[in-house]
Amino acid sequence: RCSRDWSSDVCSSDLTDLNVSFIEAATGALVADARVLRAGRSVAFAEVEVRNEEDRLVAIGRCTLAIRRG
Q: What is the pLDDT at residue 1?
């Protein structure tokens, strides 16, 4: 089954690197806002910000994905 997140021909991806910085303790509901920074032929880079109910930044993450196209 193929993912259709950022390209119509991406069939799967493997996480090759993950970095998360926890800025402060989080309680209650959280909202994560993620975006793809760049997606090439075989590698994609993404980042995510996690905020609490008061819109305070509680964590930041970045990841690298190896892409398999099909």
A: 35
Residue reference for tokens 């799967």? 12
| Cα dihedral: 69, 20, 52, 23 (round 10) | -160
Q: How many Cα neighbours within 13 Å face the side chain of 68?
A: 8
Token pair 């690197």: residue: 17
Find where tokens 């193929």 sit. Answer: 2
Tell me the whole-structure pTM to 2 decimals: 0.74
Bridge partners for 19 per DSSP: 62
Task: Note the Cα 68 to chain centre separation in Å.
Answer: 17
| pLDDT tens digits for range 2-58 | 444 555 565 677 888 999 999 999 989 999 999 999 988 889 999 999 999 999 999
Percentage of residues in the chain having pLDDT higher than 90: 61
What secondary structure letter does DSSP report for 6? S
